[in-house]
Amino acid sequence: MNEKRSEKNYGAKALLPLLVFLGLYVGCGIVFTVLKTKNPFTIMSRYVAILIAILVAIICFDRKKTISEKIDLYCENAGQPGVMQLGLMVLMAGGFASVCTAIGGEKSIVNLGISLIPSYFLVPGIFAICAIISTCIGTSMGTMATMIPVTVALAKGAGLNPGMAGAAVITGAYFGDNLSMIAATTICAVRGAGADMKEKFQTNFLIALPATIITIVAYGVFSMGSGSTAVKAGSYNILTIIPYISTLVFALLGLNVILVLAIGIGSAGIIGITIGTTTFFGWAKALSSGMESMFWLAVFAMMISGLAGLVRYYGGIEWLVKVATNKIKGRKSCEYIIGLLSLVLSATIVNNVMAIIIAAPVAKELGDKYKVASKKMATLLDIGACVAVMIVPHGAGAMMVQVALGCTYLEVIKYQFYPLFLILSTAITIQLGLMGVKKKEENLDIDSGNKEIS
């Protein structure tokens, strides 16, 4: 299917449908941002924008093919096994997060984390707890929505710097979004790069670990002298945290993600019913609600995959790779391009999941050409996309923190140490050539001609 090519190679013109989508969605978002409209990127629906782009791709190219044939080609690409698996994974991930919240798991893990923070370690503790929570529940938005009110109380009660406390929440939440094996960003990056989930986690963790340690130390130094008030945490039930722990452990053991999520969903239901925090029908309703919250992503993934398939068929991806190849000197340059592509798209559309889905086809072509390991491709896609939404002023985290803590964007950004250290750690990893070469057993050895020019 992916080897099909139009008789006429349209080259750069084949990218027009993608440009139509980005122009409509991003262009309208920017215009309404300038006009200070509330929720500017929701005025032009992403579905309408991509539907128009799909129609352009079907109608305006390759007149020798019938409309029906081009629709069939679109459907073949939209319905690829990898895309269908991605859809099932994100639906189950949404359901898992929802059922854990319904049985009291999210509240318990937050209160447990808060109870463990020493009074003299508040800001580093906020960062660490947000990182742990987000890694367990797989959503940065859920973490920020839960932890920002807690942080407001801590900032007022302990006299913390609100900008620093807010920065700790945002960066900690996106740490987990980047690493969690049940996060939509991770699932999309792994499927898009054709990587193994466990290997991606290990690679990503080794890159993020130095940045995390330095960030905690930096927050400790800069917050020294504040936080003398004891932290009061609510009650928690350790049993309701078991589903989070089980998914993390089983995923690290290398079990299939769908099976891991199924175990997590089932165990959450059993625990909730047993301890009386939910009923069978309450569990089922929560599962349904969580799945519904992820419908947009499953549908969008299919639509963008079908559109990318048409663009590839017309020669657009091939042209883009050829142009990029002229600028790339070797594997290291390719890795920088992959991370930068994801970062720029994420900063532009302010959605790290969408950015990864759009960037993945190009990243895969480039990565395969320059023998970049799929685990590193997925890691670079994920890191680039998450770094962008940490630092942009119009990101959800930045806006939530500014409203809740009453601070300005500049007061928050100057304490966002983690994205800076993560970028430095990633750059060092690339420069030293660590974890970047495809394995021989993948039948993708490094070609001597693709060695980096030093």
Automatic annotation (TrEMBL):
UniProt entry tagged with the keyword Transmembrane: yes
GO cellular component: plasma membrane
Segments crossing the lipid bilayer: 12-35, 41-61, 82-105, 117-137, 205-222, 234-253, 260-283, 295-315, 336-360, 380-405, 417-437
Predominant subcellular localization, coarse grouping: membrane
Keywords (A to Z) from UniProt: Antiport, Cell membrane, Membrane, Transmembrane, Transmembrane helix, Transport
Localization annotation: Cell membrane
Top-level division of the source organism's lineage: Bacteria
Residue ranges of domain Na+/H+ antiporter NhaC-like C-terminal in the record: 77-223, 240-437
UniProt cross-references to InterPro entries, sorted A to Z: Na/H_Antiport_NhaC-like_C, NhaC_Na-H+_Antiporter
Membrane topology value: Multi-pass membrane protein
Family as reported in the entry's similarity comment: Belongs to the NhaC Na(+)/H(+) (TC 2.A.35) antiporter family.
Name of this chain's protein: Na+/H+ antiporter NhaC family protein
